[in-house]
Amino acid sequence: MTEGRQPGGSPGAGAGWAVLATLIAGMAVWGGIGWLLDRWLSTRAFLPIGVIVGVASAIYLIVVKYGK
Amino acid sequence: MGILAKACPPGDPGFCPPGVDEFYPKPIFEFTVAGIDFQVTRIMLLSWLVTVAIIALLVAAVRRPQLVPDRLQWMGESAYLFVRDGIAREVIGREGLKFAPYLATVFLFILGNNLLGIVPFAQIAPTAKIALPAFLAILSWILFNWVGIRRHGFIGYLKPIFFMPGVPKPMYILVTPIEVFSTLLVRPFTLAVRLFANMFAGHLLLLVFTLGAAYLITVGNISVVFAPVSFAMAIIMTFFELLVAALQAYVFTILTATYVAGALEEAH
Question: What is the ipTM of this complex?
């Protein structure tokens, strides 16, 4: 996948923003799932666990998608 | 200061900072269709005015085209070629020519609406109300998804998003929600909010400095020495708004083009 093709901007800037967006999306999605689990089970631990899982998955996704 | 903000209740001697009321002027005209209330405010009128102006300018520019263009034709051509070559062709490639008209329309429309934020007597950008950027973002979302589905088929388009290649099967559970969320949901949201927030904040900034300068001049105590500072800031921020208006139009257009390019290319 030729992600990160640069339309005249600084090289790699587009991929940089996409990496940031993926990290934030990971935290949001898995943090959100953790938060919903917390509401359903009346616990407090799943939100931070969800966020950490989200960050880890996002980093994995970034390495697969943008790494060489 | 007839058209400018009036947030202060009468008799209040202090400075009343501009608030969200700025964006809800008294409607000129209201009507209801099928139970939905519509209001026509001066902000809407400005948006219509700009649309008519852009159409008039572009039509006049190509009315009697000559081989050696006169100035209006040259300006119209430059505006269109800026988007067609610099954005559509550059980002999407050969196929970009098909999307150039839509991208040029979006670019000029957003640019015109944004610039109203610094035009005297108008002084509010219609894009500072979330509805307009939201709808433009929805259009961009429909466009890039439609193009991707038409190119690869419904399953073929969604498959690389849901099941990214190069990822071992068990990781799909973790990675797919992130991919789906960031590709299908976050993109239109950030397109809309980026444009809206820039215009909203810029308008409030200009209001604060301008109304502040006016207030400081009339307040009658030592604070009047700060009035020139406030006024200078208002002028500086007006020029900054000019830059932001153009930049936000450019960013919206080039991101739409990037998403279209991404939807077209998914060749594995």
Answer: 0.74
